[in-house]
Amino acid sequence: MSRALASSRRFAALAAFVALASGLGAQPARAAPFAVDLGGARVALDAPAGFSDTAFIASPRISEIAEALTSASNRILLFALSDADVRRFTLGDTPELRRYMLAVTPRGLERTSVSEQEFSIFVEGALRGLGTPPTGTAYQAYMDTRPRGQPSVLAELRKGPAAVAVIQGARMPPATRRADEPPRYLLSSTALMRIRGRALQLSVFSAFNTPEDFDWIRRTTTDWMDDLERLNNR
Fold first, then answer.
1. 16 contacts 65 by C-beta, under 8 angstroms
2. Which residues lie closer than 8 Å to 230 by C-beta, 6 or more apart?
3. Which of 21, 63, 128, 201 would suit a FRET pair with 73, their CA atoms being 20 to 30 Å apart?
């Protein structure tokens, strides 16, 4: 599967997520840092402030959606929803699902101490074919020129030997046949990190209605990266 097709699949999963959510039952979630063992290396993970890992909800349907957002060649380490949506689950209400996030590691590198050169190859493969950011910040206008449902790189957030991050966006296909249906846009960030010798991929998703949504995903992605670096350098 090409990188562009895999990325499009993540965007298409949003519709399935919303459709399934109304039937989910909920249990209280726990928001706290935790460690995962990756080939003998203990990597500390935590969801950003205001979000909770859904592993403690123990819902098979949520697990199915998380799996649809990434390739089967990745191991899911964390799938987080907003605390507000977790509360809605608990109360039996339908969640909004405007924002959520995912952390994975490639299974092929899970037990491997990744060198700087190997990480560079991993980054090149993950971002291959995604294009370059447009000039300016008229992101909605730019997405209107792109094929529906196909994500395009909108901005670079970070580029270094141990961390690379970009923001992508796409105008989604219409949900109905109504001529007056407003356009729908989805943002997604991809952050690739080398932490304690292991390769991680972070993804943050958000609906895009105003420039504040773009600012939110940019800030959340970079803050999450900084938090994980601090957790693992203690």
1. yes
2. none
3. 21
Q: DSSP class of residue 71?
A: -
Decide: helix, strand or coil at residue 200.
strand
Give the CATH number of the domain where residue 186 resides.
3.40.1000
Tens digits of residue pLDDT in 121-178: 999 998 887 888 999 999 999 999 999 998 999 999 999 999 999 999 999 998 888 8
3-state secondary structure of 58: coil
Q: What is the CA radius of gyration of the chain?
A: 17
| Beta-carbon contacts of residue 148 (< 8 Å; ≥ 6 apart) | 170, 171, 172, 173
Residue indicated by tokens 């037990």: 111
List the structure tokens of 66: 């998380």
How many helices (H) and strands (E) in the chain?
A: 6, 9
Mean pLDDT of the chain: 85
Q: Tell me how many domains the chain contains.
A: 1
Would you say 216 and 206 are in contact if contact means Cβ atoms under 8 Å apart? yes
Q: Amino acid letter at 175?
A: A
What is the extent of the structural domain holding 201? 3-27+44-232
What's the predicted TM-score (pTM) here? 0.84
Task: Report the pLDDT averaged over residues 1-20.
Answer: 46
